[in-house]
Design brief:
The protein is α+β, with helices and mostly antiparallel strands. About 30% of the residues lie in helices and about 15% in strands. It has helices spanning about 10-20, 55-70, 95-105; strands at about 20-25, 30-35, 40-45, 80-85.
């Protein structure tokens, strides 16, 4: 995730936790609060309850990647804080992605997808506009 979109200020983390709204899932919690920026920012908290440093860093990287895959669908103007829970260590990556999408949807922070569009932005029929057209061959 681009550094510009990262939350690093401890005071802002605290403010989001105290003043913001939250959504919970067995794998993680999401706290969110509006910001005055033209973009959204994101921060991750992984406590010692998760395990030693290796476990915490792995959980943070996996959570960050799950959020990054959905980041283009988050509208601008929000600060998000993701807090990992101990069960995140045993979760499959697909479960993390699903949990992130579910929390963003519950918080109304996931832009609506066009019904003809997949989550990665590709058309539902699988063809991309840049696919070459071969004469005499049906697409």
């Amino acid at each position: 995730m681009n550094r510009r979109y990262s939350l690093r200020d401890t005071a802002r983390f605290r403010q989001i936790r105290q003043e913001g709204a939250s959504q919970a899932h067995p794998l993680m919690a999401l706290y969110y609060l509006t910001n005055q920026e033209s973009f959204s920012r994101c921060g991750f908290t992984v406590t010692r309850r998760i395990g030693k440093a290796v476990d915490r860093n792995r959980a943070r990287r996996r959570l960050s990647e799950a959020v990054r895959s959905l980041w283009d669908l988050v509208p601008p103007g929000w600060d998000l804080v993701w807090i990992a829970r101990p069960s995140i260590k045993q979760a499959e990556f697909s479960e993390l992605q699903s949990a992130c999408a579910r929390l963003l949807r519950r918080a109304h922070l996931l832009k609506a997808l066009n019904e003809n569009t997949q989550p990665d932005g590709a058309p539902a029929d699988g063809c991309r506009p840049t696919d070459p057209v071969v004469p005499g061959q049906e697409n």
